[in-house]
Design brief:
334 residues, alpha/beta, Quinone Oxidoreductase, Chain A, domain 1, Rossmann fold, 6-stranded mixed sheet, 6-stranded parallel sheet, 26% strand, binds NADPH dihydro-nicotinamide-adenine-dinucleotide phosphate, MDR_fam, NAD(P)-bd_dom_sf, oxidoreductase, ADH_N_2, NADP-dependent oxidoreductase
Length: 334
């Protein structure tokens, strides 16, 4: 059983000494337990947060522990009447490892929808889709005709947010990091406009594309991009603070919005959220997401890297944007 162990907390970008791949013995199964072979491991921006010891929403991964990550897998051995060998299970959070031993109750059987690939349950029909749906619907509350801006718009969460906002009848403007990503947003996903933050002045572009100001900001990036968006938010607008990826590699305290007074003057609702808190309500989102995915109306992409041994290198793609869709590692064949 190969496992990625956190050896030290990264400073800045994740470095080669921070994680180590080791070989360990899989423990014997006890009654009520199952052995799950990981098929896909989810790599997420929040992995960098878990590697740090900053104040956060889950305990940090301890030095010497297996790195935490979302997994889906297949039951290889079972000492529980509730799960059969060969069943696909979605334990949610697991580890960066080939095999996991866990109580059957924690290895929940995965959704299985005809024609929908397993990677969807690690993306649009998994935590990614739930993040997009709850942040937008529960916090953003988009109304027809309103303007919605989403950052990291061509990413896993952002691309779903924009499409859902279009379905609600909104004007949708995405911010992303290349001309190709921007073209995908406008030409294939139906965004009204996309701003290439690496090659355009974001503020000026927002002025052009949001003539009526901004009613909903789905914030994935933080920093200067967030400041440019907040500076154009309307009276009684809403901001779902989903992530601040531009700050995750920075050690120390992160400043808030530059123009905080605007939050008062424009009576902006800013709400940070973590998808874990919404899991008890997952069915609400799934009721809308499943038919949209099954019918092909909601588009999504997975970027799959082969081999657990490549996980530590692959996670860095999230911070350069050199991936195309929900970043996953194929740990073993489906
Ligand atoms: P993505 O697929 O969106 O990948 C991250 C993207 O962020 C990259 O592709 C890159 O796109 C962009 N990016 C990286 N660094 C920067 C930077 N310095 N400035 C601007 N853009 C940058 O990942 P996810 O969809 O999984 O996550 C998106 C956001 O949502 C993250 O902030 C993440 O932490 C957050 N999140 C929050 C959850 C919650 O429960 N609150 C749950 C899941 C995700 P580009 O090429 O456009 O720069």
């Amino acid at each position: 059983n190969r496992q990625w162990i956190l050896r030290r907390r990264p400073t800045g970008e994740i470095g080669p000494e921070d994680l180590e791949l080791v070989e360990t013995q899989t423990p014997e199964l006890k009654d009520g337990e199952v052995l799950v072979r990981t098929t896909y491991l989810s790599l997420d921006p929040t992995n960098r947060i878990w590697m740090s010891d900053q104040d956060q929403y889950l305990p940090p991964v301890e030095i010497g522990d297996v790195m935490r990550g979302g997994v889906i897998g297949v039951v290889e051995q079972s000492r529980s009447p509730d799960l059969q060998v060969g069943q696909i299970v979605n334990p949610g959070l697991g580890g960066w490892q080939d095999y996991t031993v866990l109580p059957a109750a924690m290895a929940r059987p995965s959704l299985q929808i005809p024609g929908v690939p397993m990677t969807a349950y690690m993306s649009v029909l998994g935590a990614t889709g739930l993040t997009a749906w709850f942040g937008l619907m529960d916090i953003g509350k988009p109304q027809p005709g309103e303007t919605v801006v989403v950052s990291a718009a061509a990413g896993a969460v952002g691309s779903i947010v924009g499409q859902l906002a279009k379905l609600k009848g909104c004007r949708v403007v995405g911010i992303a990091g290349s001309p190709e990503k921007c073209r995908w947003l406008t030409e294939e996903l139906g965004f009204d406009a996309a701003i290439d933050y690496r090659n355009e002045d974001v503020g000026a572009a927002l002025d052009r594309h949001c003539p009526n100001g901004i009613d909903v900001n789905f914030e994935n990036v933080g920093g200067e991009i967030m400041d440019a968006v907040i500076g154009r938010m309307n009276n009684f607008s809403r901001m779902a603070l989903c992530g601040m990826i531009s700050t995750y590699n920075i050690d120390g305290q992160i400043p808030g919005p530059k123009d905080f007074a605007r939050v008062l003057m424009r009576r902006i609702l800013i709400k940070g959220f973590i998808v874990i808190d919404y899991l008890p309500r997952a069915a609400e989102a799934m009721a809308e997401l499943i038919p949209l995915v099954a019918s092909g109306q909601l588009k999504w992409k997975a970027h799959t890297v082969d081999g657990l041994e490549n996980a530590a290198e692959a996670v860095k793609l999230l911070f350069t944007g050199a991936h195309d869709g929900k970043l996953l590692v194929r740990v073993s064949p489906e």
